[in-house]
Amino acid sequence: MAGLLHQILSGLATGGIYASVALALVMIYQATHHVNFAQGEMATFSTYLALMFINLGLPYWAAFVVTVVLSFALGVVIERVLMRPMANAPVLASVGVFIGLLLIFNASTGAIWDYTTKAFPTPFGDRPLLGGYISGHELGSTAVTLVVLLLVYVFFRYTRLGLAMRAAAYNPVSSRLVGVRVGWMLALGWGLAAAIGAVAGMMVAPIVFLDPNMMGGILLYAFAGALLGGITSPLGAVIGGFSVGVIENLAGAYIVGTELKLSLALVIIVAVLVIRPSGLMGRTIVARV
């Protein structure tokens, strides 16, 4: 029983990371109706930036804030420079841009900081807490993730800018008619997605260690969570991310073993696409032809 509780709590901790990345994927999908395959590499690049600032002498939380701000600006620049000209491009062209971004960020990260695995500091410590069921970093990263998700919810639910961004994502034509600057709302959405991804990268780096390919498996789990909860539902993506974290830990410990845990994400993706493509909380889009 103690082992089961430990796996569930650890799964919730890692699921919080997946939920953050899944939320970032959903925000980009709502803006472009495409999946940003470079989301993980962008988060990795941001995490290396944070490590650079820490090595330069900045306190952890100062480096954290600076990295989030720079990541937000990077996301806005990417939307303005690369994605805006692709607004009316064919689907495959946009997919090609996402894949190109993935390769560029991966290669740039390795070229700037090399490909050796690095340790990333944690401000929460690693001592066991809650009777040894969860570590300090797992508890702290879960708290940070929940705070970020709560701030995002409050922003979209109760601020004029957040409401404008939601309107631009759901119905850009009507939003333009009431004066919403849809182009800039989409750019801010990219910025928020990049900032949320940066937080996820900094929270997961102390666990998996830092290297240019750190977020590859995490992005796959996050994509499974986004599909499970609903690729059109931010709340569903968060719930799906936490669910995938728990499923991964339990199945890895008691069913398939650690060697096959990554295949669980593929199983979840295929099962959702076959059984319920809209996910648990997603909207089923019907078009009149």
From TrEMBL:
Q: Indicate where this protein is primarily found.
A: membrane
Quick check: keyword Ubl conjugation in the entry?
no
Q: Does the keyword Cell membrane apply?
A: yes
Task: Report the superkingdom from the record.
Answer: Bacteria
Q: Which residues form a coiled coil?
A: none
Question: What biological-process GO terms show up in the record?
Answer: amino acid transport
Q: Which UniProt keywords apply?
A: Amino-acid transport, Cell membrane, Membrane, Transmembrane, Transmembrane helix, Transport
What topology does the record note for this protein and the membrane? Multi-pass membrane protein
Quote the InterPro entries the UniProt record gives.
ABC_transp_permease, BCAA_transport_permease
Where do the TM regions start and end?
A: 12-32, 52-78, 90-113, 133-156, 192-211, 218-247, 253-275
- Pfam families, per this entry? BPD_transp_2 (PF02653)
Q: Name one GO molecular function term.
A: transmembrane transporter activity
Location relative to the cell: Cell membrane
Entry's family note: Belongs to the binding-protein-dependent transport system permease family. LivHM subfamily.
| The protein's name | ABC transporter integral membrane protein
Which species expresses this protein natively? Acidisphaera rubrifaciens HS-AP3
